[in-house]
Amino acid sequence: MTDNSAKKKPGGLGRGLNALISGSYERKESPVTPNAVNTIADIALTQIETNPFQPRTHFDQTALEELAESIRVQGIIQPITVRQLNADAYQLISGERRFQAAKLAGLDTIPAYIRKADDQQMLEMALIENIQRENLNAIEIALSYQRLLTECSLKQEELGDRVGKKRTTVTNYLRLLKLPPDIQIGIRDNLISMGHARAIINMEDVEMQLEIYRKIVNEELSVRKVEELVRKINQENKKPDPQTKLNLHPLENEVKRVETRLSTYFGTRIQVKSTPEGKGEIKIPFVSVDDLNRILEILNYS
Questions:
Q1: Which pLDDT value is given to residue 93?
Q2: pLDDT digits (tens, 9 = 90+) for 105-160
Q3: Average pLDDT of every residue of the chain
Q4: Keywords for this entry (predicted)?
Q5: Which range among 33-42, 184-193, 248-257, 258-267 shows the weakest confidence by mean pLDDT?
Q6: What's the mean pLDDT in 94-113?
Q7: For residues 127 and 23, what is the distance between their CA atoms, to the nearest angstrom?
Q8: What is the Cα–Cα distance from 198 to 287, expressed in whole angstroms?
Q9: For residue 31, is the peptide bond before it cis, meaning its omega torsion is within 30 degrees of 0?
């Protein structure tokens, strides 16, 4: 197995990470002089310590062995990124898998791009590289987004720019963290999809969320089935007064179904009202200017 991401040139990193590691560089032979930043050099593995801010703590051993074998055959295609602590010591910023696999492959040195970075930049770059991995589950991505917001003091629009995602995408991931722990574990373990989770979020009652989650797992319900189930439960829980019951019309069920799907899509509770003649209105509430801008982005409003 080869490290597919390693086939890209340094300038081909993800949008967010590339923006942080901007600037030209040149290849230099080891030993490296102090503060030789923005260069690529072959550095002894023994001079590099791992990143204390690395958000990913588990690496599949079989995958590492396969990557090590690829490195034995092809070498390191894409340099790791480090910051220089002193003339003889470096700290890993990104490229943990390549670094560990190089050790397994028996390499003495590894090509590394050297740059300056403070602790916050270290955390930010490690999180962004982690997010750009293709095999992350939705909860891992959501937790990384949350850490970028809280520990790196980023706003949601800034976060979207850093990771190359729309603000609505970021918001949908963050909303997953409002679900009960059991459901978050289910998402992490691929028992349910993000689509299932987004439908469950529209239930306000936690016990009901858990009940629907168990039903999805036990009966292997599709996302569409879950949306219909949530709509039905929400409709039954509204308990309309007698006068409202008299005013029900054939479009009511279809309108409620649309209301549930729109609420899932926009990430907020949408109100759809209609008359027996087929007329009506759609109300999309927002709680802040940022929330309004998020909704406008979904509508492609300009």
A1: 84
A2: 999 999 999 887 777 777 777 777 767 665 678 888 888 888 888 877 778 778 88
A3: 77
A4: Chromosome partition, DNA-binding
A5: 248-257
A6: 92
A7: 21
A8: 19
A9: yes
Structure tokens at 245: 């019951």
- Residue labelled with tokens 């979207």: 160
Interstrand relation of 80-86 and 109-115 (parallel, antiparallel or unpaired): parallel
DSSP state of 249: -
Bridge-based pairing state of the strands 39-44 and 26-28: parallel
* pLDDT band with cut points at 50, 70 and 90 for residue 15: very low
Bridge partners (DSSP) of residue 181 are none
Residue 158's contacts (CB-CB under 8 Å, 6 or more residues apart) are none
User: What are the residues whose beta carbons fall under 8 Å from the beta carbon of 35, sequence distance 6 or more?
Assistant: 84
* Domains in the chain, CATH or no CATH each: 4-118 (3.90.1530.30), 253-302 (no CATH)
Strand pairing category for 271-274 and 280-283: antiparallel
Q: What is the pTM of this model?
A: 0.50
SS3 for 225-245 is: HHHHHHHHHHHHHCCCCHHHH
- For 186-223, write each residue's pLDDT tens digit: 998 889 999 999 999 988 888 899 999 999 999 999 99
What does the radius of gyration of the chain's CA atoms come to, in whole angstroms? Answer: 25
Run of H or E including 26: strand 26-28
Query: Which residues neighbour 147 within 8 Å (Cβ) at sequence distance 6 or greater?
Result: 55, 123, 127
> Are the CB atoms for 147 and 124 separated by under 8 Å?
no
Instruction: Please indicate whether residue 207 is annotated as part of the active site.
Output: no
Torsion of CA 78, 14, 149, 119, to 10 degrees: 30
Which of 26, 96, 236, 254 is labelled catalytic?
A: 96
Cross-strand bridge partners of residue 282: 272
Alpha-carbon distances of 184 from 169, 170, 180, 190, rounded to whole Å: 18, 16, 6, 10
By residue count, the chain amounts to: 302
